[in-house]
Amino acid sequence: MTTSIPAPLWHFLSREVALVCDASGVITWGDDRAVRLLEYSPGQPLRKLAAQGTEDKVDRLITLARDERVEGWEVILCVGGMPRTFAFRGAPHEGGSALVGSLVAEDYAASLSQVSEAMSELAALHRETERQQRELKRRADELTLLNRDLEESNRGVRTLHAELDEKTESLVRAAELKSRVVANVSHEFRTPLHSILGLARLLLNPANGTLTLEQQKQVQFIRTSGEALFELVNDLLDLSKMESGKATLRPLRFSAADFLGALRGMMRPLVPVDSSVELRFEDPPGDLLLETDEAKVSQVLRNLVSNALKFTEAGHVTVSAELAPDDRVCFQVRDTGIGISPEHHERIFEEFTQVESPLQKKVKGTGLGLALSRRLAEFLGGSLTVHSTPGRGSTFTLLIPRVHPEVEAMVSLAERSQHLEPGRAPVLVLEDDRQTLFLYEKYLERSGFQVLPVRTVDEARRTLQKVRPAAIVMDVMLEGETSWGFLSELKGNELTRDIPTLVVTLMDREHKARALGADEFWLKPVGEEQLLRKLAAMARTGPVHKLLIIDDDDVHRYLLRQLLKDTPYMLTEASTGPEGIRLAREQKPDLIFLDFVLPDMTAFDVLDDLKADPHTRDIPVILHTSRQLREEERQRLAKETATILAKHTLSREVAISRIRDALHKTGLGTNQGEGRRG
């Protein structure tokens, strides 16, 4: 049964008012709701109820509604003294107009007010933007002028750099020419000097005939002069090696006690039995061990002791060694000789420089010993200094690292190579020169490669048993051996023949290297960009692997395609779990990239289906997700996937590295692995 709505309830629910106005806009009739809401008096004009400033809009409503129908005309009337918005519809009625108005909700009015405020703010922002654009244009004009000035300055700087480069090249050529001349002349001198000294020894040997005393004296002069000249040639040759950077470090581990004992045995014969000079050696700490070039340390100290004995007429020459701060060793040679004036303390270390003194005239020297000794000290990573007072003797101090920096660097390099970084491809470098090894590591440290340094063929073989490198860089001329046999062995073994091999050496033997199977041959030196470009190209050669990406995110699939562009990987995509499982069964990819959350199933569901099928259970899966995994989820996924990657950390290097690691674990990339799935 239907009942009517009670009047009080109808009045509460209704939001409409009905009015009739005559042609002049005077209210002639209104319903109860209009009377209650608008509180007007009969015969009152409607415009009197309008909010201040909106009377004209009310008049236009009455005028239009008197002649035609009107829809959605909004006016603001006062209700209880407060302005409220009404939406009126009107139509002509008996020469006047009939109006029905709906009270607009307050939240709608508030929205209109907010829109109005927003428009005002947008206008203000527009004005501010225009002002900023004018300011930016002004600054752009200033920058244009500044760039023009800078370009002119740069042209001048480039001109200066070109001149400096030309001067530098000229100086380098002059230095190289000088080194070659010194080295060649020194070698040419050695041959006749060996003959002269050998003949002098033969003449002085009584077994070859007796000489008169005068003849013995003359031959002895010849021998002494020849030995002095031979010493000069040796010093010149050593000095030229130091200047040209061709000196070789041969580090050994030795104790200071044994070293000074051997030095004592070498230097004792220089002190005559009836000499007034005593040669002393202080005992060093028994546990003091060094790891540096023993021969070069000995050469410096022999030179210092020899000089001290020459310039000490009476007293003693003392040699000592002790541990110094910062893990360094301090060798000192102290004498009670003539001493050196302070103004000559640096001059004595210059080539062919000798301090004038009465004793200096008696003991001739080359003037190269101390210069060479300082160069050797610097080569050993240390320094050679002197403290001396005329008439009170001199103290020469050789301060060197206990372990040579190159040895430490080599140990550090070897230790780093023991821990393969997952994000970098290993490159086996067979090179006996430490500087070249350090250079290669510097070249490759910012790339996707990691250096595995080896200095002998045996080390290379042992490393290959443990690691399969992405490429091999090798020198064939090693210290005490060549690696031609190793190259032949490498390319003759089916397990290693497909490893790209680059031969870099000083000898032009390209035909032999390529005949033995080398993929590339270069002469030293090698530039960084040249090496990286070639290694990247060589490491990319090999079989093409099929990858399947299962991810509902179009953007991430596109990103992964771009990251793996120009790589030996062929990509197939699936946007749903069932589609991915179907493609995995049909195409049998070498590896799957799987998103954790898919629209129709989770990664666990996909993994369960893949593991249940014997054709897909062995395919390695890399899980990549932007979700923060719970610990139990991470533990389970770690057992069922090759690795877990966060999407926000993915880069080209990381992607390629994880793919390579996953394929390597499954045996792909080797000859055996290529046929694993057929």
Secondary structure elements and their pairing?
Elements: H1 7-13, E1 16-21, E2 27-30, H2 32-38, H3 55-67, E3 70-79, E4 82-93, E5 96-103, H4 106-204, H5 213-244, E6 252-255, H6 256-267, E7 277-281, E8 289-292, H7 294-310, E9 315-324, E10 328-335, H8 358-362, H9 369-379, E11 383-389, E12 393-401, H10 405-418, E13 425-430, H11 434-444, E14 449-454, H12 457-466, E15 471-474, E16 477-478, E17 481-482, H13 484-492, E18 501-505, H14 510-515, E19 520-523, H15 528-540, E20 545-550, H16 554-563, E21 569-574, H17 577-587, E22 591-595, H18 603-612, E23 621-625, H19 631-640, E24 643-646, H20 652-665, H21 671-674
Parallel strand pairs: 7-9, 13-14, 13-15, 15-18, 18-19, 20-21, 20-22, 22-23, 23-24
Antiparallel strand pairs: 1-2, 1-5, 3-4, 4-5, 6-8, 9-10, 10-12, 11-12, 16-17
Helix pairs in contact: 4-5, 5-9, 6-7, 7-9, 10-11, 17-18
Plain-language structure description:
- The protein is of the alpha/beta class.
- Helix content is 48%, strand content 21%.
- The protein has 21 helices and 24 strands.
- It has a five-stranded antiparallel sheet. Strands 7-9-10-12-11 form a five-stranded mixed sheet. A five-stranded parallel sheet has the order 14-13-15-18-19.
- A hairpin with a 2-residue loop joins strand 16 and strand 17.
- The two termini are 82 Å apart.
- The C terminus is likely disordered.
Which descriptors would you attach to this protein?
five-stranded mixed β-sheet; five-stranded antiparallel β-sheet; single chain; 21 helices; 678 residues; alpha/beta
Short characterization:
It is built from 21 helices and 24 strands. It is an alpha/beta fold.
